[in-house]
Each structure stands twice: as structure tokens, then as C-alpha cells.
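Appendix B.2, paired examples.
Example (i):
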Amino acid sequence: MSDHEVAHVFDDQRRAFTPYGLTCVRWRPSLMHRPDHHNEIELNLLRSGSLTYLLRGRRVTIQPGRLVAFWALVPHQIVEFEGDSPYYVATIPLSSFLQWNLPGGFANRILGGEVIQAPESTGESYDFGLFERWLHDVEADMPERLDIVLLELEARMRRLALSCAAEPGLTPEHLRLPLDAHHSSKVERMAGYVATHYRQPIQVKDIGKAVGLHPDYATALFRKTFGMTLSEYLLDHRISHAQRMLTATHTQITTIAYEAGFNSISRFNAAFKKACGVTPRQYRKQHQLN
């Protein structure tokens, strides 16, 4: 492997929520000893082998030759892999993603925390060629080339949305609110604020205040973008945190409840069962890693 082809590995000392920005690099498969979370849309493409992420307390395996997209603000951790061939990773700033006004069913599933994999691996050479071009253009760090990379990333996301259009839950409707740069920045900051403060006793008014918006307007803007209220999004982060701890640790359930941001064990149990269909204890029994 030449110097140009040196692959990155995850830095366990990397500060949480530190943005990557617009990037395209090669990564070497390795186990992650803690989750990563950053406020970009992440794309993965493997030539061979596989990666298994822990996301929302569940294992998700990435197959070779299939483009994968997910919102990396959702904590994600590689807990298993096969093979040692480098793979491609690209990150798209959330503000850019929101301004593209992609088909609503597709965008909402990504923003809802799902991992979207291309239905099949046709056109492999096309995707690998794109990633190589993006890698070179990002390394060049020239504004004109970076603009082209963003245009090509938008086009590839639109193709991915079309290829997934037949999947259940994906509809041709578009995001209900086309976002300009000002609004997308506000929405991105709200999402980031929740992601970094959900373990604290925050409310919608605190989120609105943090971005300089009235709580009612903040809620309306967020709901039109994400298809859920700020309260639902806050609860989703707390439930996801609990799922992750139930899966990957032996921490007592009462401790998990409070660490996830719930102010009582009864509210935690009720919210968790409503969201997951089982009690926290049952969830741990079904999903805990060896």
C-alpha cells in the first residue's frame, strides 16, 4: 500500500461530537472501544469483508459492494468485522443534506436513525470510481472541487433514494419544508443540542433558547424537517442511550434509567416498553452482547 493509500483507524481519544465536515477517506477495519457520534451523514462502501455496527442497541452488518448511508449523530460502534481490506467513508455536513430536499420517505428514515443500504450491489465500479474521485478532490482542498463533490454526493443520494423507493416505508413525497441555509443551520444546532444535553433535565424551551428561537417556532421547524416533535426526538435519544447500555454493559437498570436522562425508574420503564415493546430487562436478555 502506497503512502497515498494509508488508511485511517478510529481514535478512541477523539472528542465526542467533534465534526468531521465534508470528508472522503479510507478506513482500516478495527474494533471501536466506544461509540462515535458526529453530526454528519456518513456513507460507507466496502470492497470485501463486512462490518458490524452496534446502533440503537442492535447489530447492523454492512455487506461489501453496497453503498450504506446513516446519520452519524446516532452513536455507532464497530463491534465485529471480517477481513482487513480498507473501506471508504465519506461524511456529508447535515446542513448540506437538509438543503438538498431529498425524497421525504428516504430522508426521514435516515434522520430517524435507520441505516440505509442499497438494495443490491449493481454498479460497484461506478461507486468505487466516485469514492476515489471524491477522495482526491477532498485532499486537493480546492473550493471548486469541493463544490463538485457536494453536487455529486447529492446526485448519488438521489439515486440511492430512487433505488430504495420500492422498499416499505419509502414514499415519493418530499420534505415538507425546503430549508435555506439559515433554517438548516438552526435545525442542525437543535439536533446537536439535544444530542449533547439529553442526559440533563432539559425541556423544549431550553432547546429553543439555545438556538435563539421561540419554543413553538422551534418545535414547528423541527417537526417539518424531521417528522417528529422535539419532545419525541429527546425521548428517542434517551431510549437509544438505554438500549446501548443494556446491550453493551452490565450496569444496573436503575442506574441506566438515570444516566439516560429519566427522572424516575417508573417513567423509564413505561417509556421504554412503549417504544420497544418489551421491558428493559427483557430487552437486555434478547440483545446483550457476549
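Example (ii):
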Amino acid sequence: MDTTVCTVKRSLDVPGVGAVEVSFDERGEGQTFLLLHGGAGPQSMAGFSALLADREQARVLTPVHPGFNGTRRPQTLTTPAGLAAVYAALLEDLEADDVTVIGGSIGGWIAAELALLASPRVSGVVLVGAVGIEVNGYPVTDVSSLTLPEVMALSYHNPGPFIPDLAAFTDQQKAGMAANRAALALYSPTNTDPTLLGRLPRIEIPTLVISGEADRIALPEYGRAYADAIHFARYVLLPGTGHMPMIETPELLLATIQNPNND
């Protein structure tokens, strides 16, 4: 199967937001999957996108949230709910059906908001280390003041192989990282929406909630609270995995999505 990646741009008119330009990578053919990245940026989903397109013989869309990687963001777009509206509009524009949405971290929050929009084009969601809700005793770790190595230490079961050599980064890569941090702070200044937990029971499509047992950004207890709030949700805890299984344990993540009952 040809899983060559192509980059596509679409101009959308999004209710409540206005004109938005969305850039996304597209791979493969078949059932459509929409992958929504977290604060680490779109590159954090690139490898898993290729794996999913190849193994599932699927069409995989991996957008860049406006504002990340230095992309343009309209001033009216400031929340995960707004981003969910953008992606609902994108799926309408593409006339995509039976879409499974997979989101990591803040991307999981966006995926939950997209499920709450009840788009007929979305048939299921997978929330991986999702943030967004408030859970007493289990706050989401605030990474805004942490260094990259400190964030990495909290994000991985074994961070060693994934710590980048910052000295080797180009000016463009450094600018992209700075833009990602700024965009994350804008969309999610506190990592939570106090109304989200109470709205989750309105989700009416199959939902898989996944936590890494070594996730120290959103603890497993936090993920279980996410699942408990959604009537159609199943919860899976991944061993030997932190906050970003799409990078640390992509094969395990894919196997879990393919067969969530085998846990």
C-alpha cells in the first residue's frame, strides 16, 4: 500500500470562529483516522501516523493546530472547543465518514470536545493521556515553567532514548518549539476546563481512554476518571509507557487501538 505523505491546506469558514486555514499531512487510503497532536507539536504524531496508515491500510490525517509550528491562528481561535469546531468543519469539507479520532494530551481534550459536537462523521474517539478535566487529588502537571529535560522526565517511562540534543537544533527548530509553547499556553493556560467533566456523559460514541502507567503529566487515576465519566468508554492502562505512547511504545498503542479488549 502506498502511504506516501502529502501536505494539504484547506481554507475553512468555521461557525463561531470564522476563516481558518488548516494544514495537514495525509497518508494512505481506507477508513479515515484523524490524529490530533499534543503540546509537543505535530512531529510527535508523525511516526505513529505512518505506522497506522501502513498497518491499518487507512487514510490518516494529521493536522497542525493553528498557531503551532509558527502557523497562522485567527484571534478568535483560543480554546480546545474552538479547535474541535475547526476539525468538525474540516471533516465536513473533506466529506469524510466513519472517522476515528485519536488525540494525545491536549489533542485528547480536543477529541473529547469533537465527540461532544456529535458530528455524524465521527464514529469513535481514542483519548491518549488526555487532559482537560478537573479531578480532585490528581491535578495535571503544569509544565509551563519546566525545562525540556524536566518535561521529558515526566513524559516517558524511560526518557533516555528520547531526549533531544538541543545544541544540535537549528534556529528554525528552536523557533518552532517556542511557537508550540506559546500556542499551548494560549489554548490551555491551566490544562483544564471546569465544565468538561460534567459534559462528558453526553458523549454517545464508542470511546477508548488510554493511560501510560508511568505518565506523570496526567496520572493513570486521572485517565480512569476520564473514562468513568463517559458512558461508552473503555479504559486501558499501558505498561512501560508514559504520557506519549505514540512515540515511546507505538506498537503497543496500535495493538491496543486494534484490540482494546486484549488488556
